[in-house]
Design goal:
InterPro entries: Fe-S_cluster_assembly_SufBD, SUF_FeS_clus_asmbl_SufB, SUF_FeS_clus_asmbl_SufBD_core, SUF_FeS_clus_asmbl_SufBD_sf, SufBD_N. Belongs to the iron-sulfur cluster assembly SufBD family. This protein is an alpha/beta fold. The strands form three sheets. Strands 5, 6, 8, 9, 11, 12, 14, 15, 17, 18, 20, 21, 23 and 25 form a 14-stranded mixed sheet that branches. A hairpin with a 2-residue loop joins β3 (about 130-135) and β4 (about 135-140). About 25% of the residues lie in helices and about 35% in strands.
Length: about 475
């Protein structure tokens, strides 16, 4: 390929993530957070009274809790001022709850997601596709063959109305209560949009369902909620993509994810995130796994000024298992604080955590993890592996694993490595005809291969390309 073609390809890829559209909203809340704002949001969504009550309880919880500041090396959150955030923007779409035909979307929203590849994802025969723009889902579609089997994939606002009993039972009651942390409480008060996935007993959804979340407006917050209920013996793979263009004002992303993995069920949750460098990404993600259930978290975190994200699994039933594979990339001015939490609360449970991080140009990455093995969780096992790669002496990378082992008959392993790209590795690849940049990119591609192997090919290609652009300083 010629150099002109290479440049064209890079420019096109950058454009996919950096373009922005002038906001057209049907309704936008005022800046800040108070009871009146909560009531306005709930009324605009025509929610049942019980959901409004949960929002107001979460608001009171949020107002009582201090901002987290006491973790060693955590990102500086002093700039996060919720009173300067627009918490809710409903885009100008005629059909509330989104449309199920791509052609029915307004041209500006359709053009935005066109550039992000949402229609292309559906052409690739994913089982279902949903797209959220600002605070609400604007497009949702599920292949008929899954609907006929009782699989539900719709936006959360619609699920509150159409599957009220299930949502009322699971929504922020058992998995991520508002009392969990300050940003979970914030999320519980002003959540909007997100995905609801329900898979009936003994049903295998053999192709992924996908949701894409786009924050397009300056100085806004996005608070989507994802609720996945996989009944006994079922299987599903959910893929989430997130992006935002760059603005001068800061944005806040504080989503919530709750996953319920039934007995003998299997859920894989994959995320590829590329937030702009002014976004604070402060999410809470958790799964509860029943007997012989299996949960997998696959995560690629790039972009954002600061990220604090630690997907957690509670292994509740005997023989439950959990697997985490994460990659984080931090460049100049970024602090990416990620990790994993696993609670072994039953015998014969198993977990593995594999964390990869890359830092350059003074960026900081942290692995912050917790493994808890309860008394009585006999014959449980865990293996934690943390690898960090640094490009220069200005960058930093720390591993902060914490293990609470309250049972003697268990198997525990931990390994951590931190290092720079070696000159001898670069020299070897240059001796094989590669220039300096290509040699570094090849080393990084090999370093992140464990996560790309777990993603569908189109997402693996995109993740590799995003890492390349981050290395070149072409994004943000």
């Amino acid at each position: 390929m010629s150099s002109d073609q290479d440049h064209l390809k890079e420019t096109d890829t950058e454009a996919r993530f950096e373009f922005k559209k002038e906001q057209k909203a049907a309704f936008a809340a005022e800046k800040g957070l108070n009871e009146e704002t909560i009531r306005v949001i709930s009324e605009d969504k025509d929610e049942p009274e019980w959901m409004l009550e949960r929002r107001l309880r979460a608001l009171k919880q949020y107002q009582k809790m201090p901002m987290p500041t006491d973790w060693p090396g955590q990102p500086d959150l002093s700039e996060v001022d919720v009173d300067e955030i627009v918490p809710y923007i409903r885009p100008d779409v005629e059909v509330r709850g989104g449309v199920d035909d791509w052609r029915d979307l307004p041209d500006d929203i359709k053009d935005t997601f066109d550039k992000l590849g949402i229609p292309e994802a559906e052409k690739n025969a994913l089982s279902g596709v949903g797209a959220q723009y600002e605070s609400e889902v604007v497009y949702q579609n599920m292949q008929e063959r899954w609907e006929e089997k009782g699989v539900v994939f719709m936006n959360m606002d619609q699920a509150v109305q159409e599957h009220e009993d299930i949502v009322k039972e699971y929504f922020m009651t058992k998995c991520v209560p508002p009392s969990d942390n300050k940003f979970a409480a914030l999320h519980g008060a002003i959540w909007s949009g997100g995905s609801f996935v329900y898979v009936p007993e003994d049903t295998t959804v053999d192709m992924p369902v996908q949701a894409y979340f786009r924050m397009n407006s300056e100085g806004m917050g996005q608070f989507e909620h994802t609720l996945i209920v996989a009944e006994k013996g079922s299987e599903v793979h959910y893929i989430e993509g997130c992006s935002a263009p760059k603005y001068s004002a800061f944005n806040l992303h504080s989503g919530g994810v709750e996953v319920f993995v039934g007995e003998d069920a299997h859920v894989q949750y994959s995320t590829v995130q590329n937030w702009s460098k002014n976004t604070y990404n402060l999410n809470t993600k958790r799964a509860i796994v029943e007997k012989n259930g299996r949960m997998e978290w696959i995560s690629g975190s790039m972009g954002s000024k600061a990220t604090m994200l630690y997907p957690a699994s509670i292994l509740k039933g005997r023989g439950a298992s959990d697997n985490h594979i994460t990659i984080a990339f931090a460049g100049e001015g970024q602090n990416i604080d990620t990790g994993a939490k696993v609670y072994h609360n039953a015998p014969d449970t198993k977990s593995t955590i594999e964390s990869k991080s890359i830092s350059k140009d003074g960026g900081r990455t942290n692995y912050r993890g917790l493994v808890h093995i309860a008394n009585g969780a006999t014959n449980s096992s865990t293996a934690v592996e943390c690898d960090a790669l640094m490009f220069d002496n200005e960058s930093t990378s720390d591993t902060m694993p914490y293990m609470e082992i309250n049972e003697s008959t268990v198997d525990v392993a931990h390994e951590a490595t931190v290092g720079k790209i070696g000159d001898e590795d670069i020299f070897y690849l240059q001796s094989r005809g590669l220039d300096d940049d290509d040699a570094k990119q090849m080393i990084v591609s090999g370093f992140i291969e464990p996560i790309t192997e777990e993603l569908p090919i189109e997402y693996a290609v995109e993740l590799n390309r995003l890492v390349e652009l981050e290395m070149e300083g072409s994004l943000g």
